[in-house]
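Internal QA ticket QA-208
Title: Verify multi-chain structure generation after dependency bump
Assignee: T.L.

Test input:
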Amino acid sequence: MSQDTHPSPMPDDRGVVAVVVAHDGEEFLPRTLAALKALDPRPDTVVAVDTGSTDSTPALLAASPAIDHVITLPADTGFASAVHAGVESVAHPTGWLWLLHDDSAPAPEALGALLDCAVDQPSVAVCGPKVLGWDEPRRLLEVGVTISRSGRRHTGLEPGEQDQGQYEGQRDTLAVGTAGLLVRRDVWDELGGLDRSLHFFRDDVDFGWRANLAGHRVVVATSSVIHHAEAMARGRRVEAPRDPHAVDRASALYTLLANGRTSTLVFRWLWLLLQTLVRALGYVLGKAPREAAAELSAVWTVLLRPGRLWRARRERRDRKVPARSLRSLFPPPGQQVRQTFDTLAGSLSIETDVHPSTILESGPVEEDLDSFVAAGSGRLGRWVRRPGVLLFAGLVAIELIAWRGLYRGGALHGGAMLPMPSGASDLWQSYTASWHPVTLGSGTMAHPSTAVLAVLATVLLGHATWVVPVVLVAGPPLAGLLAYQVTRSFGLSPRLRLWIGAAYALNPVFLAASAQGRWTTVLVGVVAPLAAVAVARAVGLGSSGRGDRAISVRATAVAVLLLGVMLALAPLLIVPFLGAAIALGVWAPSPRARAVAVVLAVGPPALLLPWWSVVVSDPTVLLLEPGVPLVGESLAPWQAVFFDAGGLWSAPWWFGLGLALAALVAVLRAQQVAPVRAALAFLGLCLAWALSVDTITVTPDTSAQPVVVWSGSVLVLALGASLVAVGTAARGGRMRLQLATFSWRQPTFAAVAALALLSPLLWGVTWIDRGADGPLDRGSANPLPAFVRAQSALPEQIRTLVLEPADGRLAYTVLRSRDAQWGDIETAPPVDRLTSMNAVVSDLASGRGSAPVDELVSRGVQYVLAVAPVDHKLEVALDSAPGLLRVANPGQSSLWRVELAAGRVTVLASDTKREVLGSEVSGDPVAAQVQVPGAETDRLLELAELADDGWVATATTSDQTRELPTPTASEWAQRFIVGAAPSDVAMVVDNPWRRVLLWAQLLAVVALVLIALPGRSRPDEGAV
Amino acid sequence: MSSLSVWARRPAAQLVLVLLVVTAAAVVATAVSDNSSTPAAVTPEVVPVTETTVACPGLRSRRGFTESAVAAATPPTVSGVDQTDAGSGVVRTLFPRVSRERTLISLNEPGDRDAYVGRDGERDSVTGSASGALAPGFSVTQTERTVDGAGRGLASTQCQPTGTDFWFVGAASGVGQRAVLVLTNPEAATAIVDVTLHGRSGIVDAPGARGVQVGPRSSVSLRLDQVAPGEKVLAVHAQVRVGRLSAAITETDVNGFDPGGTDWLPAAIAPINDLVVPGVPAVARGRDAKVRLDIVAPGEAAVVTVSIVTPEGSFTPQGVNIVDVPEQGVASVDLTEALRGDPAAIVLSSDVPVSAGARVLLEKPDIFGDVLFLAAADPLDAAAVVPDNRSTKDLQTRLILTAPESAASAVITGFARGREWTAGRVSLDAGTTKVVTVDARKVKGKRVDSYGLVVTPSGTGPLYGVRMLDEEGPRGPLVSSFPLTTARLLAEVPEAFPKIVVGSAG
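Actual output:
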């Protein structure tokens, strides 16, 4: 920028007029005035503008020797108007204007440095100082400001960044703050000064932007320093616009649109509109309706006022430089994303750092290793050296080693695990379906764990097959980390908490659960620490001060949600939960805690609302976790005392001896320490329940075999409780023992401590040694031969009967176009609905001759598969069955084809004549849509699904549409009477009652999430 | 009381209390625990079979040379079978077009037996099927007697139920040895069969035996001397890939221009580790017998221990007691010397699954002899039914029974013309063999020389046996035999239950 473009005469004197705008600034003014007085050089004239202060401000200004004269304006005067009034009050011409706030204290050399910078460089018209904190004089607030694409005021500094001279020197910038802004008088007049229509916000950015566009340079001279309280932005000034957020947003949009390039104006307008709407939505979700309204009002006041914008742009039409050349003065495009991410990461760490520490007041919180935040040191380095992070990394390493047997392709299955469906949408469909295509079909409500699974799969971008590997690999380390974080509020030493974290993550229940594919148990263990925190906060343990009630309501919502999730995953937890809630209700410290206890007792079970229909008809499901019932070596119940959940594929029981002993010893401290008492009580509750359920087998309606109850989830809670008990009991234990006289205690406690330390060590070694696989495996799980699968997907929707001899009996299943998958166990048809099918299979496998081919065909069975290793007797029987022909040996299994054509939908002209109808292939595996050819009489339309009242068939003939009646005689299959005329028949299941319950559940969850979401607690950083 | 409560407030006392409570709870829980998940073994229900289908390799009558007959029978009464249902039992010729089939035999009620003797030139495949009350124990045999010519000899076989896996051990395709595999498909769909041939040194390359197609209701004859010529011994494994059929092998030997005997090879059981080859006949005075044992190891090489069960007891034959069978190959061992003419069963014990058969050549010096084949058999679980037995002046029906492990006994019942009689009771000591010659019997004042037999094991020990026909012909002996197999009388109905996850761990 050459001097030629600035023909205005160089001011030959340093005629500087300083304008101090003050409003109710008695808190800051003394220091500001003192600083003004100490200035060297000083401004020639200092004008103070008081905008209707009601405190001692006018008196302070009048008394100050640093002020030449004071102007008083009404209270509703904006900053810009105040400055203009101040400037105009000076009669004599001046070379420079210097703007100051009542809460900005310039350093003595501030003005001199600014003048040095500006006078030496004629191209510089605006010059600003380095702004530092008022109370923290080393904290950087500004070295020039700019504006982001969304209108956010952007300083380019990290929050809390310290001034270490890292920005020293002079730099060009888009704008400088109005506190300490030095501007050439002629340029001020040329630009028309500050835009009066901008109240409080963005006036500085707008001014700098205009100066830049007019071809003047705006620079920051860091040799000039000013301390600024930013009273308004930090809420320290009482007087503020009625709705600061709305004014802020409106100013932001106005500034962007008034100064932005004309060529992209329309695009920018649309972008800002969209962005504003999205932000408004975000505020609604964040339970900040006022902010949302502010966003929307900004749309109204700026975006939908083209006249105002047009006027503003007309005033700014005199542009000397192309907007493109200013590009370097704006933040880079990725800046905003990065900043958002930083904010998010910060809020997360605050969550885990701060919240737990506020929940329990069990003693003075020690200064932790990890709570020491070194000023200015690298964020990454700081983060990596935290013990929690190191613990997590170590646990992940152990987990990755343990997982070694499962690094290969194929579906995860085996043990309790069944292959997952491929997408989250399949899971949602399965959860909400009224009918499940499992064997002969059933209308059983899906297990609530399916909903949890579906949510997780949705979070993982719809990859349902990732959920279980993620839960099993990341679950234990995450549980350990959470245990470490949560126990911080107990005032334990980091070393003790590391032991707790490691013991919790490596516990033998997780090991057995991983090996058995019981991801639900692992997930329960991950959620448990969070739920414990939420419950503690809900009952108001240790919290004090204002906002208690809000915290409690929010925490209660979180607790209900998390406990509901745990119940969904492991319904048998209902007993310890109810027990704990009752205990809480009885011994509650306050009425509010009593109310919370009631909510916590009722809420989580109520969240599983639609599933209670299943529980009512078959209460045994309450005792069972979802998944394949495992048959095998059964557990001796006493092992539960040592946290050994299953004799199957676990660590030796005595590895848990140390922890069990330590928990026992913790009884000694139960009288003195409340958390020990509470934890031990919960431990006792869980242990009693685990011992009880370990002694029984149950036979749910959907299983023909008794199922051993898996108490792992209860034991995880027991283990967590014992760790808390031991940890809190051990706090300060060493000191107490040192103070006491030497007796049997010291060696005993030392031995118990050593044993307890050994437990996680031994468990960790077991993890690494045996690996996380076991019955859990990867690969193909008993697939149908590819051609059978392909044929099953054809319109006839044929099925395959799969047989497997088991201890002299014969297990069977009926597969449709897919293999068994997660959720099928719980949604299988009740066994007593399948007695006729049992007889058919028995008859077929007996090999006595007349094979029940008709019966097979009526059930849609086209193929019979005997899985490897094929039982010789069964093979001979099927080989000799008339009407059944061997097709092939796929792998080691044997396959037979039923010679008659089978299908899911058939028309029965008479008792013997059966015609298969092809159903239109659609995404819905349940609904059927067929074309029934015409005939002379009414016929029966048979759908090879178990008869159910929910089935509705609608027939469309050439002249009418009507619902088909069902025959009075009941059969196992769903039948309809179809008329003589050719018709299109659509068959669907309708279960309106379930739909209502599912909607109710969804509403309850959404409501809880909204209540649980953290509200806005901090003012917008963009505000000044 | 107060001192007790004071005591209970002491931490140490609480610790002791907690320890006691936890221990007690754990002990009680363990004691009352009822969480064994293995269900009790169940005994399946037993019902009579309701349908039986068998297929015979077929008639091959030639006037003046070969008299070929099929006979069918359903035993009179079988314990546990309630024979009140109506039913049918027919033997028909098999032809791709059903309309051209002829009914050869039709049974009316349990206890019926009938035979059909083929006319000159009749060479049809035959299938037998029974349903209802006639199904339990329905069995069909085929007997051929050729008095002269290259195929001189007595041959008999039990028509096999259709199946998918067949083993035959001991055929040969050497010079003068013509073995034919007959595959009979009574079903209405084409069957596809893979035939694997094991020779002395392993699997014999025989492309012609792969993927043999057998059309619906028809049969295919595969000449082993054409698909794998020059093998002194062959084990034949027929595996049905698609469909279902019945298989049989006939072998006819000639020595130069002299007949060397003929017979059907009985199907051997699928390879297992321990097996019994019953039915080595006694050698009558004036006869010679050559006995050759053939063992096939379809997988790994096998080391087989051989012992012999004779009427005097069992012994280990010196020199031939250990047989090494090459991988996928067949090993033969000559037991003529060891047997010394005694009736016997051969007991084999191997380290890997094997199957076995034996070839017995009975001859008189300087005149023609006849061959018969034995095969590893299953013990009799229940009654065996043989419809066609003869007792004439020259032709005897013998049962060679062996109880290799423990004492066993059997009841032999004859039936003909609506009557039944006990033809003998046999008890065998452990590790012995017995030969029973069934006498002719008069029924309704008439001597029956053709009758049915039911052999019912009545003891506990496993019982093996063969039915042998033995004729002293004018030009030398005519012999044939086949193992007694458990008739399809009753079927076990397994209890079926639904289980979502079938076929994997869990």
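Spot checks passed. Chain A touches chain B through 93 residues (CB under 8 Å).
Status: verified.
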